[in-house]
Design goal:
The protein is of the alpha/beta class. It is about 35% helix and about 15% strand. It is built from ten helices and ten strands. The chain has helices at about 5-20, 45-50, 65-75, 100-110, 145-160, 180-200, 215, 240-245, 255-260, 270-285, and strands at about 25, 35, 40-45, 80, 115-125, 125-135, 165-170, 205-210, 225-230, 270. The strands form two sheets. It has a seven-stranded mixed beta sheet, with helices on both faces. A three-stranded antiparallel beta sheet has the order 1-2-3. α5 runs parallel beside α6.
Length: about 300
């Protein structure tokens, strides 16, 4: 008997839950403690947060929200959000286990976000920059029409104001509920980055776990420099799909940040706490000390 599309989504959701890696909240009132899924070490939540949500035992990098990432990367009080009021639209009247329009409203309420990316301008080590930070908590960081539009607009703003662009990716890929409207964002964002390149403005991409699908196939892998967090999953199709296609077992660590670095797809794999310092050095290299307000260089 053929399965309905609703049954198919239900089985996929069940399989995802069985294989999903996530922090284990312990059965303690107030959720004061968290258990690292990788090594099993138990941490006081505030200690984990003070270490930028990196396990001090094994170095596992927990996922950050977009606002947490902005605080870590930018100079205090300098971030100014752009295009904050754009919302997704249900172009196709799409329904899986629930209507897409309902899913959007529920996700907005739960995450406190309007979509899966926050964009704006900020200073990083006194360097002005255009910034985009994806958020996996909003529908798995999926790239829909709003994400593509906001990425394109922040790149266009950078072109007008001669700013370097920094984008942090964390995404499950193109948002299937928007169909072709989502896939079109790959071309649109890539074209915007082409204009940025013609203006000789730098583009740095920080790849966080996971960065997959259409996001990887567009702006995530078009940077002048690619920085990845340790252990981040980076790829287009999933490992199981690739194995089923080529009928071969994949190497250990395939599609992880370190493997991509060793095979020339990523430039730097760097712990989270060192990334801002690295960005400042790269911006000085690309832009020069004069843009940093270095009076001696004037």
């Amino acid at each position: 008997m053929a399965k309905s599309i609703s049954d198919w989504f239900h089985s996929k959701k069940k399989a995802a839950k069985e294989t999903e890696y996530r922090a284990e909240k312990l059965d303690i009132p107030g959720e004061l403690w968290v258990k690292c899924y990788k090594c099993g070490e138990v941490f006081y939540n505030k200690d984990l947060e003070s270490n930028l949500k990196v396990c001090s035992s094994c170095g596992y990098h927990f996922k950050l929200t977009s606002r947490e990432r902005i605080i870590i990367l930018t100079d205090p009080g300098t971030f100014k959000e752009t295009n904050a009021d754009i919302h997704s639209k249900d172009f196709l009247n799409f329904t899986d286990s629930k209507p897409y329009s309902q899913r959007i409203k529920e996700t907005e309420k739960k995450s406190g976000l309007n979509d899966a990316i926050i964009t704006g301008t900020a200073r990083i080590g006194a360097y002005p920059a255009a910034l985009g930070v994806m958020d996996f908590t909003f529908m798995g960081g999926s790239m829909g029409s709003v994400v593509g539009e906001k990425v394109t607009r922040i790149i266009e703003l950078a072109c007008r104001e001669n700013l370097p662009v920094i984008i942090v990716t964390s995404s499950g890929g193109a948002r299937m509920q928007e169909g072709i409207m989502s896939l079109m964002q790959m071309a649109k964002t890539s074209a915007a980055l082409g204009e940025l390149a013609r203006k000789k403005l730098p583009y740095i991409c920080i790849l966080a776990d996971p960065t997959t699908g259409g996001t990887t196939a567009s702006y995530a892998m078009l940077g002048d420099v690619h920085i990845a967090e340790p252990g981040a999953l980076i790829g287009f199709a999933g490992p199981r799909v690739i194995e089923q296609t080529i009928k071969q077992k994949l190497p250990i660590g395939f599609q992880r940040a370190e493997y991509l670095r060793d095979h020339g797809m990523v430039d730097i794999v760097m712990p989270r706490k060192e990334i801002k310092t690295c960005l400042i050095s790269l911006l000085e290299l690309f832009v020069g000390p004069r843009r940093a307000g270095n009076k001696e260089a004037k």
